[in-house]
Amino acid sequence: MHIPDGMLDVKTFTTLWAGGAGGIGYASWWIRKNLDGSRIVLMAVLAALIFGLQMLNFPIVAGTSGHFSGGALAGILLGAWPACIVMSAVLVVQAVFFGDGGITTLGANIVNMGIIAPFTGVLIYELFQRIRSGRISKIVGAFAGAFVAVVASSAVIAIELWASNNAQFFVVLGAMVFWHALIGIGEGIITAAMVAYVVKVRPQLLEKRIGSLNDDTSIPQNKSSLRSVCVVLGVFAAIAAGLSFLASSYPDGLEFVYFGPEGPGGSGIGAAFEESAYVTMAPLSSYILPGVDNEVLATIGAGIIGTVLTGVILLAVVTLLKRRKG
Question: 10-323 has which fold?
Fold first, then answer.
């Protein structure tokens, strides 16, 4: 779902850059004022986990693939505004170091995956909690929130492509929503599984209002259980990076819709464009570690570096934000 350079016109990507910058600015202010310092490590681990899981493209049907996005999961576990910072860190590392998603379109990717997805996921999740509370409601709400978040983000991307005069509105909207509804099933399953684990070991993480990180003070706090959650999620991140060489080579939903089943130059529904040469300049372009002849080891090495780098950058940024509080 990462939009590359050239797919959006100037008026569209500059508008979205302004929206993304505004979202990050407010999210940073919110974190300085409201973030519980004990959650900083959790944010870093989640950022690393989401980066690792995004590398694992899974095949869908008809020669297309999908990958985990993570916005809904981050929003449900942390709150929507902290999730914005987590997803922005992931997207910046992917664009700058891996050439995955454009530099000019980074603002659009942050809006789509870092703002719309977390807020949509949290809103749907909270709706389920208002209807009925309990373990099953949390798990089902997580699945529904993640599914709707992916579909909503894909619909917004369709609007952005149409606004850039690169695709017909109803054609691209229908195609994006259809394929990402299938991808959303995988997103929902992964998100529900993660939430089911958290419900079992530390349900306090889920006792919050939209955008809030303050646990219900009537619920006893257990720092050791939070540490265990961070350790387990960190292990999951390492495993995802280690398995990155198993990712499907099929084009993802956006590539499949825009370019066609044969990839760039195929018979898709989007207008032709020249992608920025920056992709080839990224130090770990195509998620391959330079200087390593074995493709499997090169992919694993790049995945491990990206996973660690994302977590470290997020940890440093949020720690700096908290030190500037007040």
Answer: Arp2/3 complex 21 kDa subunit ARPC3 (1.10.1760)
